[in-house]
Amino acid sequence: MSTTDDAQALLARLTDDGGPAGTWSAPGRANLIGEHTDYNDGFALPFAIDRRTVAAVHVRDDARIRVASTFADGDPVEIAIADLDELFATDPAARDLPAWAGYPLGVAWALQRSAAVTPVGVDIALASDVPVGSGLSSSAAIEGAVASALNDVWRAGLSPVRLAQVGRLAENEAVGAPTGIMDQMASFLGEEDAAILLDCRTLDARPTPLGFAAAGLQVVVIDTRVEHAHSTGGYADRRAACERGATALGVEALRDVGVADLPRAAELLDEVTFRRVRHVVTENQRVLDTVAVLAEHGPRAIGDLLTASHVSLRDDFEVSCPELDVAVEAALAAGAIGARMTGGGFGGCAIALVEASGAAAVEDAAIRAFAASGFTPPRVFAVHPSAGAHPDRSSLIDSVEP
Ligand code: ADP
Ligand code: MG
């Protein structure tokens, strides 16, 4: 069964009056390069992947919203739309709400805060083939699917960029995870065989052709199955270090610091803060270099930049973990052109850019290296740069009276 079938089947289980009126979907993403740069107003180069979260939606004749997900055994959560404000005014820890439901309900709440809407009651059934909690942004995928659906059903009329901001607002304020906007932008703006050069200060997003397929290359994901935890973990600590660095250097954000400024930063900052700053500054430069190298020399030439990004994340930013390091080393030893952790770190996935003909060897090498280290076997699979969020069937839009 496809993910769309799963979402529709769950919706049919929730409601007995007719089938789904429409389905919307949004992808997860892999970040090719540009990690921990988004909340520093910097650059990133993510691409949407060919794994998606699907929202099957049914309009109700009352003003309530009900959400269910195959991820949570299909158990529904229901609330009056008018009560969303009060729900999300409560501290996340004190809410009587399963954590996952904060994402779709948070999007409903954030959309109402961001646009004039016609908030008719809805049932939303969710299914996904994006690995959850692995750093491929199942969170942006669920936000994207729900935001696209409600944007149409509630006639909010927001652009993809505005919807990405709705997703981020939901994740930051409703869920309480202090993430940047990269994931949502990639999920909304992704294109076939292209990455998105994202300027996180201006939200300018430029499709950047990758040409992987034409060059006979593939991106292999090695999912370490070590779950990262964004809202706890070291993420907040790294953000704080970046803010500290920017303040000490007298800039609005680390985006405003160039590689040439690093010697001065070394004098002004304590050793740890300096290394955090150096990662962000050099990573921003690597993103721009990657775009230039892609255009001038093609995708086979970007490998060293990817691997340098990993080394910087491992040694300067210290957000890697033994499993990610083993994945990267095994992939490189098996012939990958470049490899790095992707996503926030502390677990999750590594990506390797490989010759399509050598993908199986990289997979074998990763599995053997994990076994030799006594780690849980990784999940290894290819991802292809793909299209962003969109309606899969739009019959519902026509059937809803404004
Ligand atoms: P990532 O985005 O890397 O997958 P996050 O911790 O940011 O990891 O987001 C994962 C969380 O998002 C899950 O724990 C769950 O609460 C929510 N989530 C993601 N996908 C779904 C889904 N299909 N159904 C319900 N909740 C989901
Ligand atoms: Mg996430």
**What general outline do the C-alpha atoms trace?**
globular
Number of helical segments with 4 or more residues: 13
Please give the order of strands in the largest beta sheet: 5-4-6-3-1-13
| SSE run | HEEEEEHHEHHHEEEHHHHHEEHEEH
State the low-pLDDT regions, or none: 397-402
Averaged pLDDT: 93
Which ligands accompany this protein? adenosine-5'-diphosphate, magnesium ion
Task: Report the radius of gyration as a whole number of Å.
Answer: 21 Å
CATH architecture of the largest domain: 2-Layer Sandwich
User: Sheet bearing the most strands, described?
Assistant: 6 strands, mixed
Number of domains: 2
Give the C-level CATH assignment of the largest domain. Alpha Beta
Describe the structure.
The chain has helices spanning 3-14, 84-89, 102-114, 138-153, 160-175, 182-189, 235-249, 262-268, 271-297, 303-315, 322-333, 359-373, 395-399; strands spanning 22-31, 43-44, 46-59, 64-69, 77-80, 122-128, 194-199, 204-209, 217-223, 338-342, 349-355, 379-383, 390-393. Strand 4 (64-69) and strand 5 form a beta hairpin. The protein folds into two domains: 3-210 and 387-392, Ribosomal Protein S5, domain 2, CATH 3.30.230; 213-383, Alpha-Beta Plaits (2-Layer Sandwich). By secondary structure, the chain is α+β, with helices and mostly antiparallel strands. The chain binds adenosine-5'-diphosphate and magnesium ion (MG). Magnesium ion (MG) is lined by residues 137, 139, 183. Pathway: Carbohydrate metabolism; galactose metabolism. Belongs to the GHMP kinase family. GalK subfamily. One of its GO terms (biological process) is galactose metabolic process.
